[in-house]
Every structure is written in structure tokens, then in C-alpha cells.
Design goal:
- With 682 residues, this protein is α/β, with parallel strands linked by helices.
- The chain has 27 helices and 19 strands.
- The protein has three domains: 17-249, no CATH class; 259-414, Reverse transcriptase/Diguanylate cyclase domain (Alpha-Beta Plaits, 2-Layer Sandwich); 434-671, TIM Barrel (Alpha-Beta Barrel), CATH 3.20.20.
- 55% of the residues lie in helices and 14% in strands.
- Helix 4 crosses helix 6 and helix 5 (96-113) runs antiparallel to helix 6 (118-142).
- It starts with 16 loop residues before the first helix and ends in an 11-residue tail after the last helix.
- Keywords: Membrane, Transmembrane, Transmembrane helix.
């Protein structure tokens, strides 16, 4: 199977070292094939063409080329071809001309069957010919009798056969790895010794079979195809292990490397760069407005869009660069060797240009755009995790400023080392589903019955345990993680709401929105899609909008609130009294509820008379506007009673209930007569 993300079928530019090397190899291989063929007379050639054994061997070599034995870390169509025993046997039995010709034909046939480019097929045929030429030279030099036609090696000659096999393998590996090193632009020693131990074990088995193939050839042509069974079993067992390794290290949807493989490769490249000098680049890329496309056109279209983006990214990077999908619409590109920031920016610009080409899916033309952040080793960080954090900061700057591409600038980084570490851990936590939802009941003050639940996210940190929102929400609200965070909270909350609804508990559940979430153009589509997916009526979802979110950009926020109202969801103003939001502004918003912050509510039982009067007046105006007033942070019975007397419709706080883990909510509701429907009284 051809790897859709391989760049080895892209021909080298004329005049480059790789082009010169491949041309030289093809010329040399062709020369060896022609010169060796002169040893064959016309009678011999005619006899070989009419010999069934030759055709059987050709088929076995082609089959062996198509069924290599791969090792961990290799592509599933890579590895040591199981054609080696037959090719080496032909060198022993028939000589170099026949072996080289059959192997060259098989390499070209198998290459075209896999969809490989012509230059790659020509080089493979040439390097096989040169490797076989060296093996034949060893046989001629150490045991001339083995260079004759149709000779059966004896026990004493097996050592010479083994040396010929070793010579073949050494030359073959050097020829191939030189091309790989030049293609990927890495030092030869970096690829020459990679997976060498595993390759030696496999190739030792394949070489040891060559004398047995010769023995089978001398007895009957029918014996030769029997080798297909053990070799196919070897291929299948190795392929099973490679597939398992591939699945663990690659994204299932796009086939790209995943976060695990990206981390390993990046650490390897940083280690190489530390030893030899030079720079390693890391690009983090986030697709703009992908969530909007996904929610509007469906997940299937979104998946196809991601596959398209992955293909474009792979074919826009340099040979040797690694493209990975980190999750969702976030990708990373590792640049193992990069000259400087400008060179990395050139790659980033090429990526944006490739993504910017229109995509037509389901009859709709879509435009892809991306924000890309760049960080370099050792300029910006000397370890992988800090390097990833710096690239993420740069990407956030690019997204916030809509500049497309940004390199890491310490002057624009407001994060401390601890904050960056927490940010990286949170991003990983979101990808791994580390959020846990708790729900705090909202109580109607007139009769003490629960009339709603507020969803509150907790983060199960791997070392610090369960973290409250105050420990991580500032990071969410100031980064590009806000969209993924809101999406996960909505999904988890509505999934749980649907379960409670099926159990007969139909209270509305509220979810908090920050500035970035409210002003996200994709939010209405995200909410609508989540409601549809979980089968929850829109009236059973309440979106709580922080007071600060309405102050930052009042005009845009007001428009966003009206768009959300069109969905039919409930809307509440949260944390009223903490900022500079005026009661006059409140009148222009289609809100159902105003939640009064606990610092404001506290004036009802303590503080100055003036404070008490202000709170009472605010609650009166809220009610006059047809909205419900809810007191937050109610810790005592006295405060609950004061809130009721002042006109608050409902209250929340530890006096009634702490935030409950999702698994405890159903039991709590059952014990408190919580099977209510949406409460609309003021």
C-alpha cells in the first residue's frame, strides 16, 4: 500500500546533490547490468527464456518485493523485501546477469504496482544491481566455482555465501540510506544505523534461506513456490506488529503522526541538534473557523476537510519534515533542520498558501485559513515541552492579531514558566478528557425547591488532583483553548442533562461563557449542534454570560446575545455587581435572569445601609425589567431569608448545596423533589 503522506515520490530538482547521486547510481547500475549481460550468449539467453524455473523465480521475486518485512518505526510498505533469498540464490545458481535482470524487472513491476514514481523505481533497480554486483564479486573472488552456471554450493562453501550476503546487505543499505539522508537532509549516520539491530536479525534469516532455495531449484521447480508460505507468514507477523505500532503513533483519521510520535521525534531531533549544532523548528497550526464548518455542515464534512488539510500540509513541507495532528483542528510541523526564523517562516507561509486554496465539499466551496506559531531550538527553548509552549504562545498571538504567522517573541509572552507549564498540561488534559463536571443546584426561595443546576468544570490534574475553576480558567479565557474547553463542557453537560431528562428530572442546566466564547462567531452553531446531538430542548439550556464579557465590546456582545436568543436558550447575566455594567445597559439585553455576585449579595445582611439600599434597588429594577434575580454565594439561612425578602427569586450557595459530582446529582434531586421543569415565574 502506498503511503499517501510519503514525499519520496517527489522527484529531486535537477542539479541538486540528490539528483546527481540518483543519476550516478542509475548510470552505474545500468552499466553493470549491460557489461555483465555480455557474458551470456544468445543460446544461453534463449534457453533461460524457455526455462519455467526462471519465470517462477521472477514471480517469487516480484511477490517478495511486494511483501517486505518491516520493523517498528517504518512505513508499512517498507522494510527488507522477502525477495532476497531468491535473488541471492540466482546469483549463486545462474550468476549476476540473470539475477540483476530479474531483480531489476521485479523492482520496476512492484514499484509501479505500489504507485511509485519512475525516478524511484529506476534508482531501486540500479541499487539492487550494484549490490548484487558486489555480492557476485565476493563469490568470484573467494570461491570461483560458485560463479559458474547451475552450481550447487557444498557445506564448506556456505561461509562464502554468507559473506556474499553480508556484502550485498552492506552495499544495499549504504546506497539506500545515502539517498534517504540527502532526501531528508539529515546526516548519513543518523539514518544509517537506525533500526540496524532489527534489520540485521531479519536479513540474517533471509540470507540463510538462499542456499535452501538453491537446493530446491536443483531438485524441482515445484519446490521453489513452497518458500512463499513461510516468507508470507514472516511478512504477515511483522506487518501485524508494525500496524499496531502505527496505530499507536498515528492519527486514525488523517494518517499523520500523533502527539506521541511528534514528541518522540522532536526530542530525538533536539538531541541530534545538541550534538551537531544547528536549529530545530516547531510550527503549531490551528485551522481558523473549523468549528463553524464542523457544526454547520456536519462531522463527516469536517473530517473530510481535516483529511484534505492533512494532505496539503504533507505535500507543502520539506522532505524530512514531520507533520502531526495533535487533536481537533490543531496540527504541528517539526523542522529537523532549519537555518533561522526566516526559513521557518517561509515554510509556514507555504503551508498557509496551500491551505488557502478553496476546497469543494458536498457542493460547497470552503476557504481554509490557519494561524501558525513558530518557535526554534535553541533560540526560544532548549527542551521540547518549553518549545511547544513557546510555539503555542506565538500561535495565539497570530490568531489574536489575525496576522497568520508569528514567531515567538518574549515581549509578547505574558506567561511565567509555571503558567506555561500549566497551559501545556491543560491542553493535554483537554485532549485526554480530564475535565470533570460538577453541578450546583439553584433553589427557589419561595418554597426551597431546586429549579436549576449550574455546570462547573473541574480539572483532574495528573499530580495536583482536582483543580477548581479559579486555578485554570484564567488560562482558558486568555488562550485559544477556550473554544475546545467550551465545546467539551457543553457536550458533557448536555449528555448528562439528556440522561437526567430520561430519568424524569427536567431542570434547566446552565453553562458559563467568557469573553472569547461569547464573541466567537461559531458559538451559535456549536450550541445548536450540541443540542441536536443530545436531543435536549433549547429551553433546558441556560447560557450564563459574565458581566465582563458584555463590557469589553458592548456592541459585538449585544449582537452575540441576540443571536443566542434566537436559538431559544435561556440567557443569564452572571456576576452582576463586579464590574461597571450599568442597569441602563441591562435594559437593552434579552435576558431571563440576573445573578448577583456574592460580594454584592453580602450587603443584604452586613455592611453599610447604603450598600443594602443599592442592592435592594438593583433587585427591584431587575424585576421591573421582567427578569429574575438570583443571589449567589448564599452561605447562611439568614442571608437566604434576606435575599427572599429583598425580592430575589432564587439563590445558590453552600447553605443549600455544594457543587455535586455528576454521579451524585440524581440522588440529590430525588431527595429534594427536583423533578421540576423550567421555572419562568419572576
Amino acid at each position: 500500500m502506498k503511503d499517501p503522506h510519503s514525499t519520496r515520490d517527489i522527484g529531486p530538482r535537477v542539479g541538486t546533490p540528490l539528483w546527481l547521486y540518483m543519476v550516478s547510481a542509475v548510470v552505474a547500475g545500468t552499466g553493470v547490468l549491460v557489461v555483465s549481460g555480455l557474458d551470456l550468449g544468445l543460446d544461453q539467453i534463449s534457453g533461460l527464456v524457455g526455462e519455467p524455473l526462471v519465470w517462477v523465480l521472477l514471480c517469487m521475486i516480484i511477490l517478495g518485493e511486494l511483501r517486505p518485512v518491516a520493523v517498528r518505526g517504518q512505513a508499512m510498505d517498507g522494510g527488507s523485501p522477502t525477495s532476497l533469498p531468491f535473488t541471492l540464490a540466482i546469483v549463486i545458481y545462474y550468476g549476476l546477469p540473470v539475477a540483476a535482470l530479474l531483480q531489476a524487472v521485479a523492482a520496476v513491476v512492484a514499484g509501479f504496482a505500489r504507485g511509485h514514481a519512475a525516478h524511484r523505481n529506476a534508482f531501486n533497480a540500479a541499487q539492487y544491481t550494484l549490490s548484487l554486483g558486489v555480492a557476485d564479486a565476493v563469490l568470484r573472488l573467494l570461491q570461483p566455482i560458485l560463479a559458474r552456471l547451475e552450481v550447487l554450493p557444498t557445506g564448506g562453501e556456505l561461509a562464502v555465501v554468507a559473506l556474499a550476503g553480508v556484502a550485498y546487505l552492506v552495499v544495499n543499505r549504504i546506497l539506500v540510506m545515502c539517498a534517504v539522508a540527502m532526501h531528508e537532509r539529515v546526516p548519513l549516520q543518523q539514518v544509517l544505523f537506525k533500526d540496524l539491530t532489527q534489520q540485521l536479525h531479519i536479513n540474517a534469516v533471509l540470507v540463510s534461506l538462499a542456499p535452501l532455495v538453491v537446493v530446491a531449484m536443483t531438485y524441482s521447480v515445484l519446490y521453489v513456490p513452497l518458500f512463499a508460505f513461510p516468507l508470507s507468514a514472516l511478512h504477515a507477523s511483522a506487518l501485524m506488529l508494525v500496524r499496531r505500532d502505527h496505530q499507536a503513533n498515528h492519527d486514525e483519521l488523517t494518517g499523520l503522526a500523533n502527539r506521541t510520535l511528534m514528541t518522540v521525534r522532536a526530542q530525538e531531533e533536539i538531541s541530534h541538534a545538541r550534538q551537531r549544532g544547528g536549529r530545530v523548528g516547531l510550527l503549531l497550526l490551528d485551522l481558523d473557523r473549523f468549528k463553524e464548518v464542523n457544526d454547520t455542515l456536519g462531522h463527516a464534512t469536517g473530517d473530510r476537510l481535516l483529511e484534505t488539510a492533512a494532505g496539503r500540509l504533507v505535500h507543502s513541507v520539506r522532505p524530512g519534515d514531520l507533520v502531526a495532528r495533535l487533536g481537533g483542528d490543531e496540527f504541528a510541523v517539526l523542522l529537523p533542520q532549519v537555518r533561522d526564523t526566516d526559513a521557518a517562516a517561509e515554510v509556514a507561509a507555504r503551508l498557509r498558501g496551500a491551505l488557502g486554496e478553496p476546497v469543494r465539499l458536498n457542493g460547497v466551496d470552503l476557504d481554509l485559513e490557519a494561524s501558525i506559531g513558530i518557535a526554534l531550538y535553541p533560540d526560544d527553548a532548549t527542551e521540547f515541552e518549553p518549545l511547544m509552549q513557546r510555539a503555542d504562545v506565538a500561535m495565539y498571538v497570530a490568531k489574536a492579531g489575525r496576522t497568520g504567522v508569528e514567531s515567538y517573541d518574549p515581549g509578547k509572552d505574558r506567561n511565567s514558566t509555571a503558567r506555561l507549564s500549566l497551559f501545556s498540561e491543560l491542553r493535554r488534559g483537554l485532549a485526554e478528557g480530564a475535565l470533570e463536571m460538577h453541578y450546583q443546584p439553584k433553589i427557589r426561595l419561595s418554597d426551597g425547591r431546586p429549579i436549576g443546576l449550574e455546570a462547573l468544570a473541574r480539572w483532574r490534574h495528573p499530580t495536583r488532583g482536582l483543580l477548581a475553576p479559579g486555578d485554570f480558567m484564567p488560562i482558558v479565557e486568555e488562550s485559544h483553548l477556550s473554544r475546545a474547553f467550551t465545546s467539551q463542557v457543553l457536550d458533557a453537560t448536555l449528555a448528562r442533562t439528556a440522561q437526567w431528562r430520561a430519568d424524569g428530572f427536567r431542570l434547566p442546566v446552565s453553562v458559563n461563557l467568557g469573553v472569547r466564547e461569547l464573541l466567537d462567531p461559531a458559538l451559535p452553531a456549536t450550541v445548536a449542534a450540541a443540542l441536536r446531538e443530545h436531543g435536549v430542548p433549547s429551553a433546558q439550556l441556560v447560557l450564563e454570560i459574565g458581566e465582563h464579557a458584555l463590557i469589553v465590546d458592548t456592541e459585538a456582545a449585544t449582537a452575540a446575545v441576540h443571536r443566542l436568543r434566537d436559538l431559544g436558550v435561556g440567557l443569564a447575566l452572571d456576576d452582576f455587581g463586579t464590574g461597571h455594567f450599568t442597569l441602563a445597559q441591562l435594559a437593552g439585553l434579552p435576558l431571563d435572569e440576573v445573578k448577583i455576585h456574592e460580594s454584592f449579595t453580602a450587603h443584604l445582611t452586613g455592611g453599610s445601609d447604603q450598600g443594602h439600599t443599592v442592592v435592594r434597588a438593583a433587585i427591584t429594577l431587575v424585576r421591573a425589567l421582567g427578569m429574575r434575580a438570583t443571589a449567589e454565594g448564599v452561605q447562611t439561612a439568614a442571608l437566604a431569608e434576606a435575599a427572599r425578602e429583598t425580592g430575589c427569586h432564587a439563590a445558590q450557595g453552600h447553605h443549600f448545596s455544594r457543587p455535586l459530582p455528576s454521579g451524585e446529582v440524581r440522588e440529590w434531586l430525588a431527595a429534594h423533589d427536583g423533578g421540576a421543569v423550567a421555572d419562568t415565574t419572576t
